[in-house]
Amino acid sequence: MVKAAKNIMVILSSPSGVGKTTITKKIQQKYTSFKISVSHTTRSARSNEIEGVDYHFVSREEFEKLIKEKKFYEYAKIFDNYYGTSKKNVDENIKENDIIFDIDWQGTKQLAAHKNLNLLKIYLITDNKEELKKRLKKRNQNTEEEINMRFKSFDEDVKHWNDYDYIIINKNLETCFRQIEEIIENNKKDSLYPFT
Ligand code: 5GP
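That is the input. Now the predicted structure with guanosine-5'-monophosphate docked in place:
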């Protein structure tokens, strides 16, 4: 019997600075079946970010209008800004592609409430908080105040690790990526279904 794989939706969450964005991009490079979900946000674009590629950058008014119109599968207020996943973005892609989401624990809970979605929830963590602070400073994308706010949210963020299917400690990027590859490949095998 011919079998086809169902498309999966991989959620990758972590405290800020653990390496999620790099891993997300690596997954998309390796698996051409994956599209990265491009979120909407009210935060300003960083110098290296591109509209429509990294985020859809919108004003607070536009975002609140989209909330009222029920255009999001999930959204959350994080570090004083809104972030959200539009229904259009998911619905247009899931028929043909697997999707990877770089979203926080609040969004993960909301997506998980949609029982019809085939979700695989992965949480990345570090066992070295001091190293994390250094990394946040080194990437030079936030002010001192923002770095402190992101660092402070670490303890709150990790409280939610048990909402996830897999927890991975990111000690080394390559090892971490290999573990994620294995999880994705096993999950793809498990979601094979008869194709007629
Ligand atoms: P950053 O400002 O560093 O790009 O992202 C800050 C946090 O927002 C990260 O933890 C990221 O995963 C999360 N995030 C990005 N997009 C979304 C989204 O659409 N929904 C939710 N709930 N979180 C998001």
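The pocket of guanosine-5'-monophosphate is lined by residues 16, 39, 43, 74, 76, 78, 83-85, 102-104, 106-107 (CB under 6 Å).
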